[in-house]
Design brief:
- The structure is a single chain.
- The protein is α/β, with parallel strands linked by helices and about 220 residues long.
- It folds into 2 domains: about 130 residues, 3-Layer(aba) Sandwich (Rossmann fold), CATH 3.40.50.2300; about 55 residues, Orthogonal Bundle (Arc Repressor Mutant, subunit A).
- It has 11 helices and 6 strands.
- It is elongated.
């Protein structure tokens, strides 16, 4: 029987303990052995550097560097390590981005043991897998929306981050430094009018109506 050494990366301790118990008791085509637990992205990289690992169960919303950011780095440094995301988020846009970044499988935390077992079997045989309750294309009403709000509480830092584009993050960072549209435009090699559009879009997405409240919101949610 093939043995797979497993690392769990998740900051919810009760979930980790539950998944650890499942890993230890799972029988079938593979025997799973718990190699370690990481509660944030930096700890995961340190663990992978020091512990032989075949499979990582990865949460997306973790302190510091989130799971979505970690995927490409883990896959670049450890291409043979299989990555199965287990997340509370199920937005099609996010799921597709995770696969684009290099994951092998995606499950929601509401998935059952049968789905988990199928994911392990599929990725171990070199195939991708996504949970039975997931869809990779947005519903019709979502396609019409300019902003995709991921399921979850809007106070969730991870959710907020995913609703801002890379350019909006750059503009927000420069706004927080009290730089004018003209200076931001010069630094990003875009026009002041484009900066103004980005500023308005950021404020609309975050639900604020002034630069001061925008900066306060960004600081309160560690977006800058």
């Amino acid at each position: 029987m093939k043995v797979l050494r497993v690392v769990i990366a998740d900051d919810h301790r009760l979930f980790v303990e539950g998944l650890s118990a499942i890993v230890g008791g799972m029988n079938g085509q593979f025997k799973l052995e718990l190699a370690g637990v990481a509660f944030d992205g930096s700890s995961l990289l340190e663990l992978l550097k020091n512990v032989k690992t075949d499979l990582v169960f990865l949460d997306l919303n973790m302190p510091g560097r989130d799971g979505l950011e970690m995927i490409p780095e883990v896959k670049t440094k450890y291409p043979d390590v299989m990555l199965i995301v287990i997340s509370g988020y199920g937005d099609p846009k996010l799921v597709r981005q995770c696969f684009k970044n290099g994951i092998d499988a995606y499950l929601r935390k509401s998935s059952g043991l049968k789905d988990l077992h199928k994911a392990i079997v599929e990725v171990s045989n070199g195939r991708s897998y996504w949970g039975e309750d997931l869809r990779l294309t947005p519903a019709k009403d979502e396609r019409k929306r300019k902003v995709v709000i991921l399921d979850g509480n809007f106070d969730d830092k991870f959710v907020i981050k995913q609703n801002l584009t890379r350019r909006e993050h750059e503009v927000l960072s420069l706004i927080s430094q009290a730089k004018s549209n003209k200076i931001i435009a010069s630094e990003l090699f875009i026009s002041p009018e484009t900066v103004s559009v980005h500023r308005k879009n950021i404020m609309r997405k975050l639900g604020v109506n002034s630069t001061a409240s925008l900066i306060k919101f960004a600081m309160d949610h560690n977006l800058i």
